[in-house]
Amino acid sequence: MSTATLSFAEEIELGIPQDHLPPMPEYDPNVNHAPVRKEILSEDEKKLALRNALRYFPERFHSELAPEFAEELRKYGRIYMYRYRPSYEVKARPISDYPAKSKQAAAIMLMIQNNLDHAVAQHPHELITYGGNGAVFQNWAQYRLTMQYLSQMTDEQTLHMYSGHPMGLFPSHPGAPRVIVTNGMMIPNYSQPDDWEKFNALGVTQYGQMTAGSYMYIGPQGIVHGTTITVLNACRKIDPTGSTAGKLFVTAGLGGMSGAQPKAGNIAGVVSITAEVNPKAAYKRHEQGWVDEVIEDVDQTIDTAEEYRAKGEAHSIAFLGNIVELWERMVERDIKVDLGSDQTSLHNPWAGGYYPVDMSLEDANNMMAENPAEFKKHIQETLRRHATAVNKLTERGMYFFDYGNAFLLESSRAGADIMAENGIDFKYPSYVQDIMGPMCFDYGFGPFRWVCASGDPADLERTDAIAKSVLEEIMQRSPIEIQQQMADNIRWIEQAGPNKMVVGSQARILYADAEGRIAIARAFNQAISRGEIGPVVLGRDHHDVSGTDSPYRETSNIYDGSSFTADMAIQNVIGDSFRGATWVSIHNGGGVGWGEVINGGFGMLLDGSEDADTKLERMLHYDVNNGIARRSWARNKEAIFAIKREMERTPNLKVTLPNLANDDLINQQF
């Protein structure tokens, strides 16, 4: 029987067909495809990549598949196995639609499909969710086999995922995670950018980004809230009144996570310009309502922004062009910019994450694949020009912050004028150093998420109301130190529904601390038990209090020398795994690049049971306080306050506190 005649459930249960080859689907030019990867394998390594690919299929099909996969490797630099794309539409369905023996497994299937939904994923046919290379799987055989395993899984088994490859179902127990995910976990000496190119082309590892390879991406909404908080607090830094009206925010990137920026600008109340070189990405965000208009002329872009600024009205503009062209023109015209940043995928500068100025997208993509050394020269020259223009505007009063995309890091490597006078630090702070670290992470506030597994928008509306009610109650007894955070989050949840944040699954993000996350989750679980809403999947961005060790982003406000260690992320994923998570993940890379960060995440299904009640409290408490404890030991005063407060509330929590040395005493010694 061909897969075309199978139902959705039957095709999932079939996995990789053993008795026939599926028909080859047509290559769809209307879909946003991944750039061609550079040729990096030797002839012997290409043969190895082909052997690795063919091991998924019965030998009788090898003679037909071998030339097909070899051609994919030659043409695209990777073997994606396009033939094995499923015949059904890949999207999040109601949890009841999935063929599964375990409800937890069905929830994971839902989340995997959401990550690959065409409305959500950046390059869906290449199984890439966001960031240019943030993959859910390396190829379609892995997708098919994983979904089949999940359909067969019981609550006495755990599926172990090796960088997209389902190693298999192993005997386990109901209290264990149903899935363990690792992505790109390399021996440290093999974690350079070209190592990713090589080993990914061989089909043995992948870059999972943060929430791509951990099945917890919820579209650009995932970062809208954090960006909104960042913009609001950036305005508070430059204006004592905190007013956002009439302020101009200029940035770049409309791909995956970066696509949230114009929406966040509108919610915060500023005028924003976001540059994007890829027309498909820019117009996709416009069609989805995430940006108000797309303008292709640089002067018209600036003029339009100035009109809205003069009126004090929030408005978002996508400039279809290179960000450096925009910055340089703003310098020439002496435009006053209040806030500046960048969120292009500079964690991936040599493979489509950032593009050279004065070159068409097509020419740049061709050079990237055919002459990578020359492409790198153009990228680094562009970064130098980029930094020069930013420097001139900051001299005129712009507040510029690195948005954790490795802009400062890659600019420094390109020889740009981006270093502070001491030659060690950057001229500009990371937004975590200035805003998110001391104002949110140190107090335990971070991007808590949930997905209504019923797929019913009414369930999302009900969960919004529940979350708002819980936060309002908690705020009444919150200390003054976190009143602003509570107020910002209540404001967010009130506006989230009207601002139409949903892309893909019925999902929501909300910054909350451990107290808030536990109380909200418990209220959800009770509502499920009463039959008021369907099951809910909990999760978070890896960009959080505890999940990520990243010296240039999440842990950039750690100053005791431990920002280059990864103990916190590893402890986090292990600790969550035995405290009740439904699945856990740990990745090399994510946000700022391969080899630059270790990050982990989790997912948890709430089904209304007493068991879920126990797990949510046990796991969410640790998931947050692990990071607060580490930040406290680094002598961050906000974290010391937060962990002391938590120990008063939780008798079983005993954390080692730092003794603070006198600076004068230290300075006398050296």
Give a written overview of the molecule.
Strands 3, 4, 5, 12, 13, 14, 15, 16 and 17 form a nine-stranded mixed sheet that branches. The chain folds into three domains: 30-202, Urocanase superfamily (Urocanase fold); 220-428, Rossmann fold; 438-652, Urocanase fold (3-Layer(aba) Sandwich), CATH 3.40.1770. It has helices at residues 8-14, 43-54, 62-76, 103-116, 140-152, 193-201, 221-238, 261-268, 279-287, 298-311, 323-333, 361-370, 372-395, 407-413, 431-439, 457-475, 483-496, 514-529, 567-577, 610-633, 637-649, 663-669; strands at 128-130, 134-135, 157-162, 165-171, 179-183, 248-252, 271-276, 293-295, 315-320, 339-340, 399-400, 446-452, 507-512, 536-540, 548-549, 583-588, 598-606. Helix 7 (221-238) crosses helix 8 and helix 16 crosses helix 18 (514-529). It is an alpha/beta fold and 670 residues long. The model has no long low-confidence stretch (mean pLDDT 94). It starts with 7 loop residues before the first helix and ends with a helix.
Topology:
Layout: H1 8-14, H2 43-54, H3 62-76, H4 103-116, E1 128-130, E2 134-135, H5 140-152, E3 157-162, E4 165-171, E5 179-183, H6 193-201, H7 221-238, E6 248-252, H8 261-268, E7 271-276, H9 279-287, E8 293-295, H10 298-311, E9 315-320, H11 323-333, E10 339-340, H12 361-370, H13 372-395, E11 399-400, H14 407-413, H15 431-439, E12 446-452, H16 457-475, H17 483-496, E13 507-512, H18 514-529, E14 536-540, E15 548-549, H19 567-577, E16 583-588, E17 598-606, H20 610-633, H21 637-649, H22 663-669
Parallel strand pairs: 3-5, 5-16, 6-7, 6-10, 7-9, 8-9, 10-11
Antiparallel strand pairs: 1-2, 3-4, 12-13, 12-14, 14-17, 15-17, 16-17
Helix pairs in contact: 2-3, 7-8, 11-13, 12-13, 13-14, 16-17, 16-18, 18-20, 19-20, 20-21
